C-alpha cells in the first residue's frame, strides 16, 4: 500500500502527473480568481460603498489562488490576467504585490 504522496508520484505516468499539476496549479486558481472577481463586481454593483468588505469576504479563496501562483509560476496568460485584475480590483489584498 502506498501512503506517501511522493512515493505515489513515482508510480504515476508523467502525463497523469502533469494533468494533476495543471489542475492544481493553473485551473483551480483560475476558477477561484474568476469567481472572486465576478462576486466582487456583482456585490459592488449592489452596494459600492462596501467594496473593501466585498474584497475581504473573498480573501480566503483569492489568497490561496495567489499563493499557489507565487509557489508555482506559470506562463498561462489567462491566469496572469485574472491575478492582475484581482490585484487591480482589490489592491488592499494582503498578498497583492
Description:
With 97 residues, the chain is mainly alpha-helical. The chain has one domain (5-89). The protein has five helices and no strands. The protein has helices at residues 5-10, 14-46, 51-57, 59-71, 77-89. The radius of gyration is 16 Å and the shape is elongated. The N and C termini lie far apart (43 Å). Mean pLDDT is 84; it is low at 1-6.
Describe the secondary-structure layout.
Elements lengths: L4 H6 L3 H33 L4 H7 L1 H13 L5 H13 L8
**pLDDT < 50 runs, ≥5 residues:** 1-6
Q: Helical amount among residues, as a percent range?
A: over 70%
Distance between the termini: 43 Å
N-to-C order of helices and strands: HHHHH
Average per-residue pLDDT, rounded, comes to 84
Give the DSSP E fraction (strand runs of 2 or more residues).
under 5%
Overall spatial form: elongated
Q: Count up the helices.
A: 5
Number of strands: 0
- Number of self-contained structural domains: 1
